Automatic annotation (TrEMBL):
SUPFAM superfamilies: Glyoxalase/Bleomycin resistance protein/Dihydroxybiphenyl dioxygenase (SSF54593). It comes from Leifsonia virtsii. This is VOC family protein. It holds the Pfam family Glyoxalase_6. Residues 5-114 form the VOC domain.
Length: 119
């Protein structure tokens, strides 16, 4: 196959600079049109979903899923910054651990820490 991975994620924004700064401050992502984020190798899921699927809010066209390490420390950092973090026991299991947040413009973000043997 000619496609080897995702080369970028481009989001329309009311305030691109503020949104990029939020991703940098809270998630450590160097964001912006001239920024290049070199990421670790790992699994990526590309999944078109039915319009009525309830995996994430129906009013959002997509959810960003980010692989993370140290999810407990990240959750604590986000919560201390006043960012609501949702966790559910049923989300954690065979595929790792999950938490959800929203960026400043409401985009749902799923934080995913793969099982230790997959990292």
């Amino acid at each position: 196959m000619p496609v080897t991975g995702i080369g970028g994620v481009f989001l329309r924004s009311r305030d691109p600079q503020a949104r990029a700064a939020w991703y940098g401050e809270h998630l450590g992502i160097d964001a912006g049109q001239t920024a290049v984020w070199r990421q670790s190798a790992g699994d990526t899921v590309f999944a078109p979903m039915p319009l009525d699927d309830d995996y994430f809010a129906a009013d959002q066209p997509l959810m960003l899923n980010l692989r993370v390490s140290g999810i407990d420390a990240l959750i604590a950092s986000l919560e201390s910054a006043g960012i609501p973090v949702e966790t559910r026991a049923e989300w954690d299991g065979e595929y790792g651990r999950f938490a959800r947040i929203h960026d400043p413009e409401g985009l749902p973000i799923e934080l995913w820490e793969p099982p230790a043997e997959d990292v």
